[in-house]
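Because discrete structure vocabularies remain unfamiliar, it helps to consider an illustrative case, giving the amino acid sequence and backbone structure tokens:
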Amino acid sequence: MKKSDFYYDLPQEFIAQTPIEPRDSSRMMVLDKNSGKILHKHFYDILDYITENDCIILNDTRVLPARIYGVKKETGAVVEFLLLSQHSQDVWECVTGPGRRAKPGTVFDFNGLMSAEVVDVLDGGNRLVRFIYEGNFYNILDEIGEMPLPHYITEKLEDKERYQTVYSANLGSAAAPTAGLHFTPELLAKIEEKGIKIGKVTLHVGLGTFRPVKEENIENHLMHSEHYHLPAETAELINNTHENGGRVFAVGTTTCRTLESVASKYGRIIEDDDRTSIFIYPGYKFKCIDSLITNFHLPESTLIMLVSAFAGYEHTMHAYKTAVEEKYRFFSFGDSMMITEVN
């Protein structure tokens, strides 16, 4: 298929700039993956579509406040550093801007709390940066760092926790698993009271999730690699759910990619810790998930391609057209979509 097959026209004003309160009051489009029928609900209505035989799988990754600003010691010039991944104890791969000011050997100061030296320039222009500090690196990040919000969000986020899920636990993402932002502690309690089991996986989301598809033939697109962990208890929950005739609801494309990566790798769901660069697009045969809870994604992105693989291309593009007509809120802080079988 072509990249242009996944284009849709989205008015700028439909891109959500701020999160909605309370979290679970966002709108939710329910899409029947068999018929393409669409229902307009709210996120707190998910209890109407999930039974006690089913399970919900969440991605419990936590976002690093990974955007920090350093002052070049020689000139006083300010350079933005965006932490991507940890290569060793104090060495991180970073995106820097402007990059020309971050040459190897250059030293930067961060609010007097730590300094950093650019060690190397990697293929593609990212930098390897060694940080020098006293105390706890993550505490310093929490004090000076900003959330690495996507480029399409231009308003300042007043509360850092609004770009975290309420169940986030394992620090390491450069972006939030945004489908989970709609859950509240109260809603999770109601889910468990109904007898629905909740499982966790961890996939640390990389900024590659926002990388545009440049190849017109989507099969030529190279996916970014991300680290995941699927615990033994989650594998057992999923297997028991399927054995008992229940459905596995994946919350978010990151959870989906984790489960499908393990199922593709082993032919079954087992405990695993690895990296994945799985690219799911129409034609892919799903091996684990039965239903998907997700947000509305950018045109021509790998994420809308994944949704099209699960819901069907025609159903997906019609749903997006309907979402625009109904003035849904789009992208990270936007509304939700549940793709499932509707009785």
Remarks:
- The first helix runs from residue 137 to 144.
